[in-house]
Design a protein that fits this description.
Chains A, B, C, D: Residues 238-386 form the Acyl-CoA dehydrogenase/oxidase C-terminal domain. Chains A, B, C, D: Belongs to the acyl-CoA dehydrogenase family. Chains A, B, C, D: Residues 11-123 form the Acyl-CoA dehydrogenase/oxidase N-terminal domain. Chains A, B, C, D: GO terms for molecular function: acyl-CoA dehydrogenase activity; flavin adenine dinucleotide binding. The structure is a homotetramer of 392-residue chains. Chain A is α+β, with helices and mostly antiparallel strands. The first copy, chain A, has three domains: 7-94, Butyryl-Coa Dehydrogenase, subunit A, domain 1 (Orthogonal Bundle), CATH 1.10.540; 127-238, Beta Barrel (Butyryl-CoA Dehydrogenase, subunit A, domain 2), CATH 2.40.110; 241-388, Butyryl-CoA Dehydrogenase, subunit A, domain 3, CATH 1.20.140. Chain A is 48% helix and 16% strand. The first copy, chain A, contains eleven helices and eleven strands. In chain A, strands 3, 4, 5, 6, 7, 8 and 9 form a seven-stranded mixed β-sheet that branches. A two-stranded antiparallel ribbon of chain A has the order 1-2.
């Protein structure tokens, strides 16, 4: 057993942290970081800075100019990037693009790679992942999928409504989950690729949400008889759920990595404040009521870090790590939310203002206990495995 | 012992709830409810509607057109008002005006009542309470007060910076806490009344904050050689801390009342959703993972309600109830925050959006664990009383 | 609304507290307080002392020499008695006798009152309540009842095994829950009265349990063709579940009352220790890490007290208060367990020893989250009411 | 980074688990496992069985017949041993002997090794560690040491009272922490070695405690003019605190390892029960209220495991790991206590009885949040490091 991070990864993570701290953090007060996330203009500016600093998209395969980081490598680098919520935007390792790249890398045909993955990987354009639907459609339970795909000659006709589609506004293309109607695959979920420029795709509105760190925000998207050619299927027909799983386990973990970076930042801000601000005759940090919160933050950061590393190691070994990535999602999302909460509390009145990044982090990270499976769905899955005696 | 609410109070509370539900709630999507709180224009419109419905400012003494509600009466009515975060704005029982009215009612001279309390009580204008200062000034520890008042002939000259001053933007007058410099009261905190129209009072900026339900938002206010006459002192010179305590105990409790109303609303929204939204073969509410959260909400609402009633009863008996109002503040602010958190979690993706009021409630109520004394300061005070053997 | 406790009740509670503190507490080191509870010998000695002090069985109706305390009266007096875990034993208001008296008082025929209630109420003998069965029988789910009652001529023949039967060892009689087999009431739960001296009732063993405050401990009891006359039915045939509910709601609440008394005691012991024991340059109580725990204890005691009062008031009004007594059970059992845990933690090494009563209280109160419905069953019931829209 | 456990360690851990499950577990109902811990007779019988199985004392250096396990090796093996609370007793890797062996191994002179370490390492006799004193002596704050050592010619005269001295009853020798009075080292803590057979050492009583898994229980020990030769000092004069630290960091971690084994056992018992016991129409484990508890157990076990491994790795690298071992102590002791609590709750009525080992585990592990530094002392230390900016 060995917890050493390879020198090469450490060096890259260290450069990323420096880049984020010196170059990205000052952008946190940029007006282009709106309540619907950073604008594409800001995103591109940050991407250019990352390219210049040699830290752009290091997770991408070397084929597309990246460094093909392992999951453990990502653990180090994405956490460094997450030090600012704009860091993953700058490095182009934010959701949903990062997860989409992974999915396409595993599943896409060569021509799809060329057309969709290549421009995505190089940052030429963005993408979105259209799975979630409003009630009574597919939310926590993907089997409630209502969006349909019907074969009309050589063309698939897709109809339905999606929502909470992150980054839809401004995306070049979409991966759409739909239920096949008719034919041999009748009733089975399937993934399709489509250009967002298609007139049959309508962004009905951008939702006002508690979080604001994803480029393009979260949109309601409608498909009105969207027609795509028969080869627009990603992978095999009827394998949508399988691919969603392929995407999800690592996607969950990269969320953990990025948010861990923000937790470390919040803890730094709270600690620095606790060293300086006085009350009742001494600095806050000399009050146990405050220092115990800092200690609890440190422990939550510690266990989150270890959990991420362990699951990343399993993924690097080629395991599915379903149970472990579920546990990592719950452990990290809840631990990091506590760090955000305590950090805000330590800052007191200042914590309630946008004068530090902690307020925004607190709001953003609230959604993390919900997306990619709410804690309840993961607890249910973890518990069911135990009760039914599955090893994994 | 008797937990019955008098019929007259029940009737008023019932009318208030109806008014809020039917008239106020639709305003929750009004664009004049900004991220810095409702505009004064919206506030006045809501005040007029409340007057028309006969529910305006029922806590105000009959002298000024109110009903002189007892603390227990307020418990019922303010909770009904809090069903919408705009309800207390409409009824003119929101912070800081409601607390300022109480303070002026107890402390102000007849001429000050006429000049300040009367227009405030009737809703002609708003007020602000200038106590909190940025680090290293008076925050949780009021003894760190840095704003000074120096007597220059017959005029007090006030200098200093305040922040997180709720409702300063648009307020007619301010109650200012400053430390006397020189003279017999040297070093002692004193309250002053001043018109906000004075050029020496500068609103430097309105803070971007996590909450957004207070009219005028929270501002940074600077006094640059603000000159007020010698009779601008509220009450006695040097008694600032004592008056702050007079204001605080009931002010804390009315916060609890109003937020309890919002918690009841969130629970209703979450329950309704849990009855309708399906996942994994049944409605959410039939999953114990969800129904246990609803049960915990019910219990947190129950204990909050009982705690408020008990402290209100003590205040009505004329007790200071310092220990009990501290406990009520901690118990309610934490219980209600948990209700907000669970309700949002039950709503899942919907909960992260502004499509229900729960998202805004979740954010707003976060600040409640900080203002009027963060939980840590109250725990410290409660614990100290126990250790040092004070009965109260 | 009014939280005053009537002077007469206050006076009695005060006498009870004094009796418990001065007379009962010294018995806490008596060797007759075994790991299976106080012996009957000790119980009788304590009963005599209580009689002498004029505080014996004040909840019992005047007919049997008691004072016919209301539920609110019990709230004050049982909490005072609970100051020592031997207090309720001394006053003869401990489980299961106290609940059995209530049940018999509501349901028993005159001849049953004379034969069973009278000697029970006057402390001549004890009783037990035989409902719980080992897996796969009736535990949390009473509908899994396996013990049967079969009519053979004029005689009921009862067969089955019960366990966790509190006080069975030494009891004069039992109330037995059994499922009728055959006849019109086939399959319906029914309560029977039987003398424990019957040879067909075998106490197989007394269980070693985490708690030790109930006289007689908890036993495994077997009925081997126990024959009782047809008039041994308590109340009506087939109404067993209804009577169980009649017994349960108040029985749960009296548990809350008694344990609250122990929580107050633990808090006193912890506070006194925190005032005296030093570490790192000051007394423990001046460390926020300790004083915050005392403050949390105070708040948990406060909400438990209020919850008990409220439910008692409802019961006194004649309401069933099913929802409220469920909430009170969960709120109090969990809050009081936290008080026990924090008090033990404050005492440190001393807390792990039997040199204070806190260690025993900590263990005993652990079972309170399980008996009379585990927290999970109550949360399930509370949540179901909310989801299904029942008001009560 | 690599989380693989070496095959050799895995193999040993697997043999230990098998030994504990098949040979040791049946002893859990042996009457020689008293409320003051296993008797020495039982301990020796178990030791012999472990020797026979080839798993005795694998942590001991090869010089004394052990396998000189690294900290990571211990993590695997001690956790396997902890599957039964008697496992560490059988393998002779329980506290305080295991920690004393480590201390002696690092600090003792060759003649002291021969006289004290050798018989201890081979299981010929046991030892105790006399540091803790009753109030107002050394508890959480070792600097309050009251036991004195005064040089009288060539002899040290030791006076004082210790308590909570684990294993004193039946121990062959003691390591005594005392404060030197007079001379150059005046006032400095120093460790002494003494035979427990000395008449000047009196075991005043064995404490009744909440836990019961340590051989010999916990005693009050008095030194009345205990005279030991000048070479009875362990290591250097005045270095007592330093040695206590050398002992503590690994000793804390081995506690975590052993208790983790018991947590795994409790989770197995609860899971098995949840698969079998029915309520309300299905097995408990199909109720989310239960399966979520199993899931939380799994996550607490997971983070405990990872935290132990990480700190063990640091210790193996030769680092002091003070911060990490403090964090591991708090994280594991609190997580494992939650596992015990949930497991007991899942078992319901059964959980409150000694019919499963969970009841005993629940009680024993309560003390773990107190010994080797209560959570509060560790949080204080962790927080202080952060506030004062120490890296370690």
């Amino acid at each position: 057993m060995n917890f050493s991070v390879p020198a090469q990864v450490l060096e890259l993570a260290s450069r990323v942290k420096e880049f984020v701290r010196d170059i990205v953090v000052p952008y946190e007060t940029d007006e282009r970081w709106t309540s619907h996330g950073p604008t594409d203009d800001l995103r591109r500016e940050l991407n250019d800075l990352a390219r210049k600093a040699g830290v752009f998209a290091p997770h991408v395969s070397k084929e597309y100019g990246g460094q093909g980081l392992s999951h453990l490598g990502q653990a180090a680098v994405f956490t460094a990037a997450g030090y600012s919520m704009l860091g993953p935007v700058a490095l182009h390792c934010a959701a949903p693009d990062e997860g989409n790249m992974h999915l396409l890398d595993v599943v896409a045909r060569p021509d799809q790679r060329e057309r969709y993955l290549k421009p995505l990987a190089t940052g030429a354009g963005r993408s979105c992942f259209c799975m979630t639907e409003p009630s009574p459609g597919a939310g926590s339970d993907p089997s409630q999928l209502l969006t349909t795909a019907r074969l009309d000659g050589n063309t698939w006709v897709i109809d339905g409504e999606k929502w909470l589609i992150t980054g839809a506004e401004g995306a070049a293309f979409a991966i759409i989950m739909a239920k096949v109607v008719g034919g041999e695959a009748d009733g089975r979920a399937t993934m399709f690729l489509a250009d967002m420029s298609d007139d049959a795709i309508k962004i009905e509105r951008t939702l006002d949400t508690i979080d604001s760190s994803f480029t393009g925000g979260h949109a309601v998207v409608r498909f009105d008889q969207l027609r795509v050619p028969s080869d627009a299927i990603l992978g095999e027909i009827g394998e949508g759920y399988k691919y969603a799983q392929i995407r999800l386990a690592p996607a969950r973990l990269t969320h953990c990595m990025r948010w861990l970076g923000s937790a470390i930042r919040a803890q730094e801000i709270a600690t620095e404040f606790a060293r300086r601000r006085t009350a009742f005759g001494k600095v806050l940090g000399e009050h146990e009521g405050v220092s115990f919160m800092l200690a609890d933050n440190a422990m939550d950061i510690h266990t989150s870090q270890l959990t991420i590393w362990h699951t990343a190691w399993l993924l690097d070994k080629g395991e599915k790590a379903s149970a472990e990535s579920s546990m990592a999602k719950v452990i990290c999302s809840e631990a990091i939310a506590r760090v955000a909460d305590r950090s805000l509390q330590i800052l007191g009145g200042l914590g309630t203002t946008r004068d530090t990044i902690v307020e925004r982090f607190y709001r953003d990270v609230r959604a993390f206990r919900i997306y990619d499976g709410p804690s309840e769905v993961h607890r249910w899955a973890i518990g069911r495995r135990l009760v039914r005696g599955h090893t994994k």
